Amino acid sequence: MSNQHSTETLSxxxxxxxxxxWNVSTIAPGKVMRGAGVLSTVAGEVAKLGSRPLIIAxxxxxxxxxESLQPLFQSQQLHPVLVSYGADCCExxxxxxxxxxxxxxxxxIIGIGGGKALDTAKLVAHQLTLPIVTIPTSAAxxxxxxxxxxxYSAMGAFLxxxxxxxxxxxxxxxxxxxxxxxQRTLVAxxxxxxAKWYEASVSSGHSEQTLIIAAVQQARxxxxxxLQKSASALESPGSEVWQEVVDxxxxxxxxxxxxxxxxxxxxxxxxxxxxxTHISGHGSIHGEKVAYGILVQLRLEEMIQxxxxxxxxxxxxxxxxxxxxxxxxxxxxxxxxxxxxELQTAAEISLEPNSDxxxxxxxxxLEQLMAAMVSTTAPSQLKFKS
Length: 386
Hints:
This protein is α/β, with parallel strands linked by helices. Helix content is 50%, strand content 10%. The chain has 15 helices and 8 strands. The chain is globular. The protein starts with 6 loop residues before the first helix and ends in a 13-residue tail after the last helix.
């Protein structure tokens, strides 16, 4: 089957395209600056990209963001303005921010905040063809790294994603800033990052393409780092092991998506996340829903394929989730009173024709997905060989 893609779509994929003789990969930011207190040293580096930045942050972090970015505001080389993206990376917010950028005569965009703030900033920069700097305030996602933005409704329901022309020009990872975030955000980031192995190994584990092989193997390394170090990191914020886990969730998780492209990025775990956003609103954060989605994916492999490795992996993850506080079932996401209609809605959206769930090596019926979603903590019924 031939693949017909635009150049923009190709930018997030490394799979063979027979219709064109070339391929484009967006692997990494132009530069990454990281360290404790590094934010106080970056004004000169930022000024290389422009002099009139539009700084995009969230409502809850506007004042905090201005305080954190004082070196940029005080720099004689820069003339920034700080604006809120609102509640979500949605069409209305994007339109308002493009207008604000033009009014300020912006020549660069800076995004500071969590995943949605960074996705919004990246997408505005992409739409206006401007340089982009990302400054994560938590380790909840790898959005600071990736050439991808997710677009939601104003109510927080996932709508679609946009492949961007490049990764950020500059990523600034300040451990002191990350440490000010609630610990829940790092726990969620661990859930989002560890999904890379369970999804990439299913969708791309048999690939013979060099970069995809590298991505899958990096996903295995990422999983092992998180399984081995997460508990210690959470017990000692700011420590060396904590920094290693932050690097894993913010940076290494992004490397995997960059090397492997779209086909190596998401499968059922993220598809389930997307469906849940239509019934949960802002009640839980991205990585929490993704972590639950991993259990759903493994449950599907267990139920439909009789996969013993998936059954074993699910039991291992349940213990790990219990140790660090990741959600194991719908009730842990605030959906303990979910109705059958709501469950079906989430499952139907997860199974839409363009959903990443179809990267699974088997078909999933609506009833099977609904059954998996309500049995993530069920004891394994498979018999293991001694």
